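It is worth pausing here to work through a concrete case rather than discussing structure prediction in the abstract. The textbook approach is simple: state the sequence, then state the predicted structure, then interpret. We follow exactly that order.
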Amino acid sequence: MKLVDTHCHLDFGAYDEDRERVIQNAIDAGVTRIINPGTDFASSQRAINLAHQHDEIFAAVGVHPNSTVGWSPEVLSGIETLAANEKVVSIGEIGLDYYRDKSPKVTQHHAFETQLELAAKLELPIIIHNRDASEDVIAILREWIPTLPDSLTDRPGVLHSFSASWTIAEKALEMGFYLGFTGPVTFKKADDLRVIATRVPIDRILVETDGPFLTPHPYRGKRNQPAYVAYVADRIAALHLMDTETFAAQTTDNAERLFGLSV
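Step two, the predicted structure:
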């Protein structure tokens, strides 16, 4: 079975004591590639460093909405410099977060919009963080989509760890986005999310861990790791009445197509 964990923060301190073992666990579980998104400049740099130490790991660079308080042209310039690295496949994790309230909305919007402009300029897809901000995220993306070069029109990016409504899913899919699903799709009370996962075309689904967070059943409550993306794939495969291996191959193809990963 071949899987791609399209979102795991392997650079975070939660993995400092056993990072190499975690990566080997993933390989043993059939995870062939892992995308490590940055959350600020320092995290983006760490993601790149880690990617250069492991053929299986790729980086995304960007500033998470909760890290945008100090946003400036200099930060944007730094992200652009990092994005030139050969192991960078995306701009992210970027977006809006109205739940944590760690950065003013006006600052979040400015950082999101300027990083979207950067992604279009560099012809890189985006990884979107959206928490309690769905309508504004969609509105901003609708303004961005017409500015894209031909190379991104059918692969603008992914709404990571999707948790919004089917209405939002439809709007994102209509714009060409992929939807990423994480551990919550395996939770006992996540019936609404599973209904959405069932309705999304299988050629637009990505599987993620968002490690070290959102650990799937049966390990919920413990630290997440890329090997556990298999539990996410298994659950969604069942929803689509597919065997896990076939579904995993499809999501791997999806990840390769979106992020331009080599086979």
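Step three, interpretation. The mean pLDDT is 97. The CA atoms of residues 122 and 218 lie 40 Å apart.
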